[in-house]
C-alpha cells in the first residue's frame, strides 16, 4: 500500500504538470540563466534559462510513459514464448531456450545500449532494444510455471476432455501462471526506467528539447557546485519511483506467497 500510495502521488504530480508548472519547460529566459530557487522558479533555471521544476515534471511524464509502455511488449512476447516452450517441450523448447541463453549471455544494459546505438537515438529504438532483451526473463518465468502446472490435475482433466492445446493454454494455464511474471514486471519497470534514464544521460534516449531525467542529470552535472538541484532533483525522482515500484513488487510477492 505504501508503494501504491507513493506511485499514485508521483503519477498524479507528473500528470498535473501543466497545472503545477508556471512556465513552459522549453521556454528560455536568457536573463535568468542558472538562477537559484525562487517563487517563480521553485528549482531555479538551467544553463539555458529554462524552468528546472517544469522540466522535472514533464520529464517524469516521458520517462514513466516509456518505462511502463516498454514493459508491455517484452511481457507479451516472453509470456507467449514461455507458454509455448513449457507446454510443447521437445525441439520447440530447445530452440527457444537456446535463443534465450544467447541473449542472457550479454549484460542487460550493455546490450540495450549497443542496440540503441546501432539503430540510432530515439524512443522507437529504445522500445525495440528493450523488447529484444527483456523478453527472456518473462519467458523463463512462464516456462518454469508451465512445466509445473501442466502436470496438475486440472490440465490433465482438460486434456482428457479433448480440449485443444490452444484452449488449454489460453483458458486454463495462462491465468494460473501469470502471477510471478506480473510481480517481476514491477521490478522490470524499474530496470526499464533506469535504462531509459541511462540512455538519456548518454545522449541516446529521448532527444532534445523534450525534457528527460537522464538528460537533465547529464546537463546538471557540470553545475553541481553552484546549482546542485539541476542534477540531484531528477536523481531523487528516479529513486522515489524505483522505491515505489519495488515496494509494490515486494507486496505482491508476499501476497502471492501467503495465498
Describe the structure.
The chain is mainly α. It has a single domain, classed as MetI-like fold. Helix content is 74%, strand content 0%. The chain is built from eleven helices and no strands. It has helices spanning 2-15, 17-20, 52-88, 90-104, 108-119, 123-149, 153-160, 165-177, 179-201, 213-220, 229-258. Helix 3 (52-88) packs antiparallel against helix 4 (90-104), helix 9 packs antiparallel against helix 11 and helix 10 runs antiparallel to helix 11. The two termini are 18 Å apart. The mean pLDDT is 86.
Topology:
Blueprint: H1 2-15, H2 17-20, H3 52-88, H4 90-104, H5 108-119, H6 123-149, H7 153-160, H8 165-177, H9 179-201, H10 213-220, H11 229-258
List keywords for this structure.
259 residues; MetI-like fold
Structural class: mainly alpha
Counted up, domains total 1
Considering the protein shown, what is the CATH homologous superfamily?
A: MetI-like
Shape category? elongated
What's the N-to-C terminus distance? 18 Å
* Portion in helices: over 70%
Number of E-state strands: 0
Measured by DSSP, the beta-strand proportion falls in: under 5%
Report the CATH topology name. Answer: MetI-like fold
Radius of gyration: 22 Å
Mean of the pLDDT scores? 86
The CATH architecture name reads Orthogonal Bundle
Order of helices and strands: HHHHHHHHHHH
Supply the CATH class: Mainly Alpha
Unreliable segments (pLDDT under 50, ≥5 consecutive)?
A: none
Number of helices: 11
Amino acid at each position: 500500500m505504501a508503494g501504491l500510495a507513493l506511485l499514485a502521488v508521483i503519477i498524479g504530480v507528473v500528470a498535473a504538470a501543466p497545472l503545477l508548472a508556471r512556465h513552459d519547460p522549453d521556454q528560455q529566459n536568457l536573463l535568468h540563466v542558472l538562477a537559484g530557487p525562487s517563487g517563480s522558479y521553485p528549482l531555479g533555471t538551467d544553463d539555458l534559462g529554462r524552468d528546472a521544476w517544469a522540466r522535472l515534471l514533464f520529464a517524469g511524464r516521458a520517462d514513466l510513459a516509456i518505462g511502463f509502455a516498454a514493459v508491455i511488449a517484452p511481457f507479451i512476447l516472453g509470456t507467449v514464448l514461455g507458454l509455448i516452450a513449457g507446454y510443447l517441450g521437445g525441439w520447440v523448447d530447445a530452440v527457444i531456450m537456446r535463443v534465450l541463453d544467447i541473449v542472457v549471455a550479454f549484460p542487460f544494459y550493455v546490450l540495450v545500449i549497443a542496440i540503441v546505438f546501432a539503430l540510432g537515438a530515439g524512443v522507437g529504438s529504445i522500445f525495440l532494444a528493450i523488447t529484444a532483451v527483456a523478453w527472456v526473463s518473462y519467458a523463463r518465468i512462464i516456462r518454469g510455471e508451465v512445466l509445473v502446472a501442466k502436470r496438475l490435475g486440472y490440465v490433465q482433466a482438460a486434456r482428457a476432455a479433448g480440449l485443444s492445446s490452444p484452449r488449454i493454454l489460453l483458458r486454463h494455464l495462462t491465468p494460473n501462471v501469470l502471477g510471478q511474471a506480473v510481480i517481476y514486471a514491477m521490478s522490470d519497470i524499474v530496470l526499464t526506467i533506469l535504462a531509459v534514464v541511462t540512455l538519456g544521460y548518454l545522449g541516446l534516449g529521448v532527444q532534445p528539447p523534450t525534457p528527460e531525467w537522464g538528460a537533465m542529470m547529464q546537463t546538471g552535472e557540470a553545475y553541481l557546485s553552484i546549482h546542485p538541484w539541476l542534477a540531484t532533483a531528477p536523481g531523487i525522482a528516479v529513486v522515489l519511483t524505483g522505491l515505489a515500484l519495488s515496494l509494490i513488487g515486494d507486496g505482491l510477492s508476499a501476497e502471492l506467497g501467503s495465498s
